[in-house]
Amino acid sequence: MKALEIKDLDKHFDSFKAVNGLNLVVEESEIHGFLGPNGAGKTTTLRMIMGLLEPDDGDILIYGKNNDSKDLDVLSRIGYMPERPSFPVHLTSRELLEIYGQTYGIPEEVREARASRLLNKVGLDNYADKRTGKFSKGMKQRLGIAQALISEPDLLVLDEPTAGLDPGGRARMRQIIKEIGKDDITMLISSHLLEEVEKICETVTMIDEGKSVLSGSVEELSHSKTVLQIELMEITSRIINALEDLPKVKEVIRVDDDKEEIKVIASDDEDYRPVVSKTIVDHGGTILKMTDRSRSLEDVYLEVIDGGPEDEQLR
Ligand SMILES: Nc1ncnc2c1ncn2[C@@H]1O[C@H](COP(=O)(O)OP(=O)(O)OP(=O)(O)O)[C@@H](O)[C@H]1O
Ligand SMILES: [Mg+2]
Fold first, then answer.
1. CATH class of 2-216
2. Structure-model confidence comparison of residues 178 and 315, the more confident one
3. If you write DSSP's letter for every residue of 226-278 in order, what string do you get?
4. Sign of CA dihedral 101, 105, 109, 114
5. In which band, very low, low, confident or very high, does the pLDDT at 312 lie, cut at 50, 70 and 90?
6. Mutational test site, ligand 1, from 13, 207, 306, max ligand atoms within 8 Å of CB
7. Which has the minimum average pLDDT: 90-104, 144-158, 263-277?
8. Closest residue by CA, ligand 1 atom 1
9. What is the pTM of this model?
10. Would you tell me which CATH number, out of the four given (3.30.70.100, 2.70.98.50, 1.10.150.120, 3.40.50.720), belongs to the domain 225-294?
């Protein structure tokens, strides 16, 4: 089942289209990265999912139901940590979770036990009775996660949970997110940091200028395939057949009809150049040029997101 489905979502601020025909599907139980550069429209989208901002157009379905009427039965299925969580400075962590739990109508004994369990989960049990006004950024982010989990949501939405944290804080946050992910929960996590998404998420949607530009499994996208582009003196079927017979070679493509050029695509990122060149020579071929065109998730990201290396040169 789909935990979240967004279809053709639009949102403009004055004449500026912050979200422009965005589509996103998050399947139940996956940890989905919502990746895009600063200003891509991530926070705006997440706020619309939560019903904090009205879309101009499009549909947002949460477990198949739309959140237009902001019913508690839909809202309590989603937990949300905003971009920079902040809390009333005079409240302790426990008091904050207590009050927040009340707003969901959670009975007192359940609230108390749940608050203690969540504070333990995010490593704040020693700070349960300390006022949040003195908390560091990392502690506030962790309390933000506990707050988002108070209704025991099925879908947890985190807006840049590692932003602004030092490397130790980021590692700790990743650990907490992975622990939470072991429970039966779906997560949508926004980030502009590719390496964070690669470490935490199973699937990813990349967005740019308010549109989704790519979606897929991190495994598939980041396990760079080997793509070798080879110019030969002459392409023969004998060479093509021999290359196709190599283990792990998925495809051999003729680049275009006018050129004696082929692409060899293999299913993992080993260096295939030695075996490919030997196979070609053994089958009577002559290599004029061989280029490695393998791609990593970063290459894919830079290719689809504006502001990649080529745009950089134009500035
Ligand atoms: N309330 C608002 N009024 C006017 N413009 C806004 C408003 N909120 C967001 N924007 C603009 O919409 C665009 C998308 O903003 P958004 O905060 O959704 O981006 P983001 O992907 O979350 O970026 P970041 O990675 O920096 O958090 C930006 O250009 C932003 O300036
Ligand atoms: Mg944002």
1. alpha beta
2. 178
3. EEEEEEES---HHHHHHHHTSTTEEEEEE--TTS-EEEEEESS-S--HHHHHH
4. negative
5. very low
6. 13
7. 263-277
8. 13
9. 0.80
10. 3.30.70.100
